[in-house]
Design goal:
The protein has 349 residues and is of the alpha/beta class. It folds into 2 domains: 8-224, 3-Layer(aba) Sandwich (Aspartate Aminotransferase, domain 2), CATH 3.40.640; 228-341, Alpha-Beta Complex (Aspartate Aminotransferase, domain 1). 34% of the residues lie in helices and 17% in strands. It has helices at residues 17-29, 46-51, 89-102, 129-140, 191-194, 209-224, 227-248, 277-290, 314-332, and strands spanning 8-11, 33-37, 66-69, 108-113, 143-147, 171-174, 186-190, 252-258, 261-269, 274-275, 295-297, 303-306. The strands form 2 sheets. The chain has a 7-stranded mixed beta sheet. Helix 7 runs parallel beside helix 9 and helix 8 (277-290) crosses helix 9.
């Protein structure tokens, strides 16, 4: 588990945990604004929708109190920098420009960030970014909240994704794997956040004992069967195989991820990095025809996302990589009928 060094209280939220955050943080902090990231996905209800920065959700206005900044997307740096020489320019830009000229830090109650930005393209931040973000938050009295709804509970090779960077959050948003197949989500946070409101986030159908029992059993299995360790082991194995594919196929621009959240970014040209969303869609569809199901993500709809079960084996990983390679070959050679994609709606396509 993550190294909590302050007193936390548990607040279980069964419906839209990010909706809870959108309501509680301004109330608890006395600061009206939240800061999130371009490419982020936090949910479909109004407050969570407004917090999200994915282009698939840009067609509906919501959440005027939210400021969005670029996520540290090193492969496609929005500042046109190189990660080895940028000096963490994105963090400096945030503190020196955004907090100076766009939004006063005294107005920001919390920063909500995904430790790995999945729907935005399985983007892994620069190793120094999240620790630096913690420093900036501490300096300005801003809460740092991690959305671990998708990558939590062992998927990245640690129980929570933020553990890879040794960062202690002020609150953690959880869901998806938390319920072990049942509908369950939750927020764990500082008492000054969680206890700020009464009757603020209540639902008639909340509090399912079946979902709670399923969650406890799932946590026991993840811990006792060392599934986080398996996620790291098989994830490293898959990265090796997928990087071998990258060496063979020019359309693979980048392979990235943590543990068993893996992104394969497809491009038309490696030098220009022009996204290849249609090729990605055809690859996804061809894999479906060959017996492998996954989907595409990313702000350009050009990233293959692999999030297999934590119990996956090396043999299953090998088969998946073989199917992906064949699918890329078939899609690049126009062996996938484009009319088959008419009813296919990718994430943001």
């Amino acid at each position: 588990m993550f190294p909590i060094v302050v007193v936390f209280t548990v607040g279980t939220v069964f419906i839209a945990p990010n909706e809870f955050i959108s309501k509680i943080v301004p109330l608890a902090s006395g600061r009206p604004k939240l800061l999130t990231f371009v490419g982020s996905y936090h949910g479909q209800t109004m407050g969570a929708y407004g917090m999200s920065g994915h282009p698939a959700q840009s067609h509906f206005a919501a959440g005027g109190n939210v400021v969005k900044i670029p996520y540290p997307y090193c492969y496609r740096c929005p500042y046109l920098k190189e990660p080895k020489s940028c000096g963490l320019f994105c963090a400096d830009y945030f503190e020196d420009y955004i907090l100076s000229y766009i939004c006063d830090p005294d107005e920001i109650g919390a920063i909500i960030v995904e430790s790995v930005q999945c729907d935005g393209g399985d983007v892994v931040p620069h190793d120094a970014y999240l620790p630096r973000l913690r420093e900036i938050c501490d300096k300005h009295g801003i809460w740092l909240i991690f959305d671990e709804v998708k990558v939590g509970f062992g998927r990245t090779g640690r129980f929570f994704g933020f553990e890879h960077w040794g960062v202690v959050p002020d609150a953690v948003i959880m869901g998806k794997p938390m319920g072990g197949g049942q509908s369950l989500s939750g927020v764990v946070g500082r008492s000054e956040i969680m206890d700020a409101g009464v009757g603020l986030h209540l639902f008639t159908m909340a509090g399912s004992p079946l979902a709670c029992a399923s969650s406890l059993a799932s946590i026991d299995i993840i811990k006792n069967e060392k599934l986080a360790e398996n996620a790291k082991y098989i994830g490293d194995y898959m990265f090796e195989g997928l990087n071998a594919l990258k060496d063979k196929h020019e359309v693979i621009g980048d392979v990235r991820g943590k543990g068993l959240v893996v992104g394969i970014e497809l491009v038309k040209d490696r030098k220009t990095k022009e996204p290849a969303p249609e090729l990605t869609a055809m690859t996804v569809y061809r894999s479906y025809e060959l017996g492998l199901i996954y989907y595409s993500v990313g702000i350009f709809s050009n990233v293959i996302e692999l999030t297999p079960p934590l119990i996956i084996t090396k043999e299953q990983a090998d088969k998946a990589i073989d199917i992906i390679e064949q699918s890329i070959i078939d899609a690049a050679a126009d062996r996938v009928a484009k009319e088959k994609l008419a009813d296919y709606a990718g994430w943001g396509l």
